[in-house]
Specification:
The protein is of the alpha+beta class. Helix content is 34%, strand content 29%. The strands form three sheets. Strands 1, 7, 8, 9, 10, 11, 12, 13, 14, 15, 16, 17 and 18 form a 13-stranded mixed β-sheet that branches. It has a three-stranded antiparallel β-sheet with strand order 2-3-4. Strand 2 and strand 3 form a beta hairpin. Helix 5 crosses helix 6. The relative contact order is 0.14.
């Protein structure tokens, strides 16, 4: 069994660190005020006060020491009063800070800790600014997921209520494990008022599953450097409840698409192609439900989008009792700041839906959202905490970040690409397909003209090789922002309210397919 610092504090008697803090603050600054950070609320076993962990496979909270199990409701009820008291104190302190009414003792405590004891808009903005200075989404995440002694901007400090240790974290981190006693410390005032989530999807997959999934992810990647899987090292794995905004709404609009009917025939030496062009105008609307957009500037949007979808059937009313054992974030981007992502996805989806109604033609141009005049409105916006495993690895002094859906196990992330393997695969495919096409040309079809022969014998291998390599490359770069919201369209909600097809023009093209040498033969 592990011996944890502050375990005496966890069982009811103040830990040594906490006792020293209280004595120092009382006698150094007077009995009326304490120059110390606010205390966390530690979610511990009601029986032995040991650390609790939420287990996704059982849906219960389990004690690491006595192995007692509790339902989330039991744990929430046991700590509701304490959490409410801590949140109220934090709100009052934040109000004093916003009004510039902090006492000299509170300011001294913040200066001593090198971080704010309260979360205000300015502190959150400072935290976001730290990530914004990074040159990539991965660097932005790492700059805020870990901190150092030199950079304390956007940090907050508070005391572990179990052992009295001073904890420092990013201003938006709501719960973390105390590194001294191992208990889960909920930062006071993290989930109050508008910052309190409406819903949560509990974790189903544990850390071992995340690491195993990452190992499986490396397999079958044709362009992956051979030494990466063997030399790559996991630097950090963390289960995080990420704040998401879920948007319900509708999109309506109209757009015009260019469609063509094409007819081809032979006239002597020439192949004649006649094209009739039409403008197809369409008008319609569609309903959407729970389009997700993460509300954390710390989390890379492309990773958060790519791990969709979540199974919303498992959404449950928010309870802090699901959080022990994981980290949790409060949003630092509100629903107004994130809604443009949902709007873009709704507009793109409506454009696709309107375009799909243009039928009966040989060709229809792809839907371009810029050509669709759409109007989007939201009917309801909910905030939910969704489970995500973040895995950070290093190889050759480079950082690689992966995200796994903590409910479904879908894992995404960008892998390094071996240029040599790209070249070898391209050449190998080109030569093999080229040999096959030459055999077909001279053994079966025997193309008459040089243009067709070159186009087939060289063009087909080139297209096949390039297409295959593009597919292999896409497997290496899976962290991609979503452009559409087809998965969130309410069944049967699309309504085509208007359509009109108008003939625009027609034209012919003539292509020489036989030469004079062909005629002489």
């Amino acid at each position: 069994m592990r011996l944890k610092m502050g375990q005496h504090g966890a069982s009811g008697t103040p830990g040594f660190g906490k006792l020293v803090s209280e004595v120092f603050s009382t006698y150094a600054f007077g009995k009326g005020e304490k120059a110390m950070a606010q205390e966390s609320v530690n979610y511990q076993c009601p029986n032995c006060m040991g650390p609790l962990r939420y287990k996704g496979d059982s849906g219960m909270l389990e004690c690491e020491f006595c192995e007692s199990t509790f339902t989330p409701t039991q744990v929430e009820e046991a700590y509701a009063a304490k959490q409410r008291e801590a949140d109220e104190k934090a709100e009052a302190a934040a109000a004093r800070a916003e009004a510039g009414e902090q006492s000299s003792f509170e300011r001294m405590a913040d200066e001593a800790a090198g971080a704010s004891s309260v979360v205000t808009e300015d502190v959150i903005d400072a935290a976001v600014a730290v990530g914004a200075q990074a040159d990539s989404s991965i660097a932005s995440y790492l700059s805020r997921a870990s901190w150092n002694e030199e950079e304390r901007a956007g940090m907050r400090s508070y005391l572990c209520s179990s052992c009295g240790a001073q904890l420092t974290s990013d201003a938006t981190t709501a719960i973390q494990e105390c590194p001294y006693c191992g208990n889960q410390a909920m930062a006071p005032g993290s989930f109050v008022d508008t910052a309190k989530p409406d819903l949560v999807i509990p974790f189903k997959l544990d850390k071992a599953a995340a690491e195993q999934t990452l190992t499986e992810y490396y397999k079958g990647k044709k362009f992956l450097p051979k030494e990466f899987a063997a030399q790559n090292r996991i630097a950090h794995v963390q289960g995080v409840y990420v704040p998401f905004w879920l948007y319900d709404g509708s999109a309506s609009g109209e757009g015009t698409f260019e469609a063509r009917n094409i007819r081809t025939w032979r006239e002597g030496k020439y192949e004649v192609t006649e094209t009739h062009v039409y403008n197809a105008w369409r008008q319609g609307s569609s309903e959407f439900t729970r389009i997700p957009a993460d509300g954390s500037a710390k989390m890379p949007d492309e990773h958060m989008d790519a791990i969709e979808p979540f199974d919303y059937d498992e959404l449950t009313p928010f309870s802090v009792a699901y959080l022990p054992g994981f980290s949790a974030e409060r949003y630092d981007q509100d629903s107004d700041a994130c809604c443009h992502r949902a709007v873009r996805r709704m507009e793109n989806t409506l454009a696709d839906q309107l375009r799909d109604t243009v039928t009966g033609y040989d060709q229809v141009d792809p839907a371009d959202p810029a050509d669709v005049d759409a109007e989007v409105s939201f009917s309801e916006i909910k905030q939910a905490l969704l489970p995500v495993w973040m895995l950070h690895t290093r190889w050759k002094d480079k950082d690689f970040l992966f995200a796994m859906n903590g409910q479904t196990g879908r894992l995404v992330g960008d892998l390094p690409v071996s240029p040599l393997k790209v070249v070898l695969w391209f050449l190998g495919i080109f030569l093999v397909v080229g040999a096959v096409m030459l055999g077909v040309d001279f053994g079966f079809i025997q193309f008459d003209d040089t243009v067709t022969r070159v186009g087939v014998d060289a063009g087909v291998p080139l297209v096949v090789a390039a297409g295959t390599c593009i597919y292999f490359y896409s497997q290496m770069k899976t962290a991609v922002e979503q452009r559409s919201a087809h998965a969130y369209v309410v069944n049967g909600s699309f309504d085509l309210t208007g359509s009109d097809d108008t003939f625009v023009t027609s034209y012919q093209t003539r292509t020489l397919v036989e030469t004079d040498d062909d005629d002489k033969r």
